[in-house]
Amino acid sequence: MIDIAKVPVQLRLGTKEDTKVLTKLASETMREAFGEQNESKHIDAYISQAFHKLSVQAELADTKHNTFWLAFQNEELVGYCKLNRKSEKPRNLKGYKAVELQRIYVYDQYKGQGIGKQLLEACLEQARQEKYQAVFLGVWEKNESAIHFYEHMGFEKMGWHYFLFGFDRQRDYWMVKRL
């Protein structure tokens, strides 16, 4: 048996050809991350809207506005993150050239290996290369492990907003890292 903690991770940019595997990963990691704390009707509604195959394909194809970083172990997609350049900035960042880290997910069985950190660092480096001054994100107020991770990576809370998760209005913190 292979110790997955010792298998190196390969990162690469996502393309339209990754639609099928990314759609599967996005849906499954969303259920892993939020399944225990949310009703299935909300998760199902969110996934059917955000991770429909055509939606994912369109996002992958729109490289002007979106960048997906994919993490592979043994040629299996195990995590991903997305930078979104067309997001509405929080009002605290008006006047800054800022980009949103919209999603970052890793299968539960691969967590704790630094994959999320590698994905986030790839996004931060890309943002620096593109001369962004800040990276911001929204994170559910009840997702304490994610909040801790982002704080560890240098993000700070800067307010909150409401996020519609399926049919459930939830409160998300805005977090920012200035570059």
Number of domains: 1
Radius of gyration: 16 Å
Strand-and-helix sequence, N→C?
A: EHHHEEEHEHEE
Q: Structural class, judged by helices and strands?
A: alpha+beta
Going across the biggest sheet, name each strand in turn. Answer: 1-2-3-4-5-7-6
Give me the CATH architecture, please.
3-Layer(aba) Sandwich
The CATH homologous superfamily:
Gcn5-related N-acetyltransferase (GNAT)
Q: Which CATH class is shown?
A: Alpha Beta
- Beta-strand segment tally: 7
CATH fold topology = Aminopeptidase
The number of helical elements comes to 5
Main sheet overview: 7 strands, mixed
The dominant shape is: globular
User: What portion of the residues fall into strands of 2 or more residues?
Assistant: 25-35%
Write the layout of secondary structure elements.
Elements: E1 10-13, H1 19-34, H2 40-50, H3 53-61, E2 66-73, E3 76-84, E4 98-106, H4 115-129, E5 134-140, H5 144-152, E6 156-165, E7 168-178
Parallel strand pairs: 4-5
Antiparallel strand pairs: 1-2, 2-3, 3-4, 5-7, 6-7
Helix pairs in contact: 1-3
